[in-house]
Amino acid sequence: MKGHIPADKIEEVKGRTDIVHLISEYITLKKTGRNFLGLCPFHKEKTPSFTVSDDKQIFYCFGCGQGGNAITFLMKINNISYPEAVRHLARKTGVVIPETVMSREEKERASISEQLNRINQMAAGYFSKNLLSPAGKGAREYLSNRGIQDTALSDNFRLGFALDGWRHLRGFFESQGVPLKLAEQAGLIAKTDKGDFYDRFRGRLIFPIEDVSGHVIAFGGRILGDGEPKYLNSPESPVYVKGRNLYGLAKTREAIREKGYAILVEGYFDMVTLFNAGVTNVIATLGTALTKDQVKLIRRYTGDVVVIFDPDEGGKKGMARSLELFLAGNVQAKVVVLPDNYDPDRYVRTYGRKSLEEIIAHAPTMVDYYIENIIGKKGGAIEETSDAVHRAVSFIANIDDAIKRNLFIKRVAEKLGIDQELLKTEVRHALTPSNYQGTEAPGHTDTKADKVELSLIHIMLEYHDKIPAILETGILDYFMSEELRALGKVLHESHDRGGGNRDTDGLDTFLIINRLDNESLRERLLKLVIDESPYNEKVIDQLIADTIKQIKRKWYKEKDRTLRTKLVKAEEANDWDQCIYLLREREKERLLRE
Ligand code: ZN
């Protein structure tokens, strides 16, 4: 049983790890200037934009925005957890990590997950044996009718069969000494009101659902005949949370990485038949609507997805949501709509892999498809256009990123033949306060206001020894970005703590940057930090002084602006006491500024 890793051991591992060496084991790096450059292992590219900094021990890809330190690199490339990555590096660098004792709670949680994994594994074996038994004949015939004959394939996906009856699996578990309460927790056994245990899956073809590491965590069951429900899935359990997994990913993640994109389908059968036909970079959403977590999961392997999409009404609705998720998750999505209402399973069995690949190669982007087919067509009847505008507005207002939102506004305005400004105004009305901030530029958008604050943070990350002098000026109080102010404080504390790291001052650039919750801010800072330092060593003190001055000027300006607005309001309200107070405040500010 693996327990908690002591912090000093993590520091030791980090101190002994060289990120350039480590990454060189996976990709070829070439030295260019101060950094190393190579082809990104996380997205498909022809010109290298994957940058590794030796002195800062971080990496950043200008193509896909992935970045981190040695530990994050290992986690991403091998799909392992943080402790696993640390242990891996410890073995490489000869650091001995003592096996500490876990707390009782940790132990219980870990052991329940382990036990559930084991029970699921046993059940998968049991189901798959049933499929090969005489009782599984009907299920085998059903599979073969759908083009799945290859036992190697059913082995590959561990397809199985749940016998038709109430106590088969239950009996199997009892014979193996598995506590039924635990099997109930795994979702395999259910309980009547009277407390009687019975099999959840009966007379169904079974698809074991695996997590990315290949542990069986849940099951999907397809009825063979006409009954309802057609599909039955395991309920959530300590090892299975809906919407966090993608069916087939454990098998296909390597192919996805190699081909540079993933094909996303809806159901088990589509996934299995496409794989069977040699389309190996395919995954399925398990019949539910796509979730944010699933997009994140995809993003770990590729930034490009082809969604094979069912164009019925439900599908159209789902597409708006999926598109939002892909846009937010920085995933480029294309859409394939198969002709004549074919589903992927039937299509590939009828026309073959080549034909499907041909369609995929010419698939439009989801944005194009959406604008073209769902938002509507130009020059229709007035009611139709106004309907389309309405749909577009509510969709655009849901996009978080201001830049993407504006791009969309432009495209939709062109498409519908309406005025861009008009559409912008409509969207602005529909925006929620949280995403409104970034749209227009009323005085200060966060991009503008924090630029100089960001450069001061950047300077501190470049010149650690300047940190105390900079922060002694109290400049953090003048930061307008709360996030960057908090980051400045972190820098201060980390610098004070000092010691223990390769730079001997205890600053882990990536960990510090990673404290930023705001994703775009985090990416901007990473980008700044990994680029060649734009600062001239000789004039750095002057530069710092200038930057500090600029930040203060900006702060006073903003303060003055607020005072002025208040003053106008007080004048309008004939509140002269308030006016005098505000005028004095302004005077004080002015004196302070000099
Ligand atoms: Zn990349």
Verbal overview:
It is a single chain. With 594 residues, the protein is α+β, with helices and mostly antiparallel strands. The protein has five domains: 7-93, Zinc finger, CHC2-typedomain (DNA Primase, Chain A), CATH 3.90.580.10; 105-240, Alpha-Beta Complex (DNA primase DNAg catalytic core, N-terminal domain); 244-371, 3-Layer(aba) Sandwich (Dna Topoisomerase Vi A Subunit, Chain: A, domain 2), CATH 3.40.1360; 376-430; 441-594. Strands 1-2-3-4-5 form a five-stranded antiparallel β-sheet. β1 and β2 form a beta hairpin. α1 (7-16) crosses α4. The N and C termini lie far apart (64 Å). Bound molecules: zinc ion. Zinc ion binds next to loops.
Task: Give a short synopsis of this structure.
The chain is of the alpha+beta class and 594 residues long.
Q: Note the total helix count.
A: 27
Instruction: Catalogue the ligands.
Output: zinc ion
Biggest sheet layout:
5 strands, antiparallel
Given as residue ranges, the uncertain stretches (5+ residues, pLDDT < 50) are 434-446, 499-505
